Amino acid sequence: MKTEEVGQSILETWTVDEVAQAFAEGEIVVIDVRTPQEYMFEHIEGALLMPMAFFKADALPGQSEKRIVFHCGSGVRSEKVARAAIEAGMARVAHLEGGFGAWKGAKQPYIGTNMATGAPHRVT
Questions:
Q1: Is 118 left (phi over 0), alpha (psi -120 to 50) or beta?
Q2: Taking Cα atoms as reference points, which of 64, 12, 60, 2 lies closest to residue 33?
Q3: How many helices, marked H, and strands, marked E, lie in the chain?
Q4: Would the pTM of this model clear 0.85, i.e. be above it?
């Protein structure tokens, strides 16, 4: 994990392996900041959706029990949202390096869309 001090806060950049392990162990909440359309087409199973366009730091849950890790398609939007969360007063924020593209590239499971039927299905 890479860390960067931003004022009094810390911005963490997690690898796919770090996110996958912590998510599997129930240690983190993954928040997808892509559009609803992107999320519906394919997403990390169990990730919550809070599109960047509608991001409200005060609507985020506290991090006393589970840490928050943001992700998007490539890591650009999730880093912007993480920095916005820091500006809103969060002390420690994380995002997924490389985003959903890196997640898929690492062959992690996700929910995709069956193009023949339009139905969601698990991709492993």
A1: left
A2: 60
A3: 4, 8
A4: yes
- Domains, the chain, in order of start with CATH, read 2-123 (3.40.250.10)
Tokens representing 103 are: 């997640």
| pLDDT for position 89 | 87
Q: 């139905």: which residue's tokens?
A: 119
Segments in 46-98 forming alpha helices (H): 76-87
The structure tokens 């007063």 sit at: 89
Tokens of 115: 């193009």
- What DSSP state is assigned to residue 41? H
Amino acid sitting at position 12: E
| Tens-place pLDDT, residues 5-21 | 998 999 999 999 999 99
The alpha helices in the chain, defined as continuous H runs, are 16-24, 36-41, 76-87, 99-105
